[in-house]
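Why do we care about 3D structure at all? Because function follows from shape, and shape follows, mostly, from sequence. That is the central idea of this module. The next example makes it concrete: a single protein chain, its amino acid sequence, and then its structure expressed as C-alpha cells.
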Amino acid sequence: MLITSFRVRKIEAPTNRLVAKCTITFDGMFAVSDIKVLLKEDGEFYMGMPSRKTAAGTFKDEAYPVNSEVRAAIEKVVFGAVKYSLDNDVAVLNGEIKSGTNKVSLLQQDVEDYQLTSL
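And the structure:
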C-alpha cells in the first residue's frame, strides 16, 4: 500500500496550534481527509486523525493507523509536505507520486517521492 497523492491546506491564521489540514489517498482508491497537523509547544508537529464528538462529549477517531510503525510512515510524508508548505509559504500543496517510483510500501515513502504542485 502506498500514499499515491496528498493535499495540504495551510491554515492562514493559525489558532489553537492548528497549522494545516491534509487529505491523503492510498493506492489511488481510498482517501482519508480532515487530518489535522498541529504545532506542539516544543516546535514538533502532531498529527490528529479525523474524529467525531461522541454523545458523552469525548472524541473518537474515525480513521487511524493500526500501529506506531504505520503512523510514523504516514507522519513522515504528511509532516514533510506541511514543512514544505510552511517553508515556501504555499497555501495549498498537492503531491502526486512520481511515475516510475520503485517504492512498494508506505513504510519506504518520503515527500521526495512526489511531484509537488502549489495552488
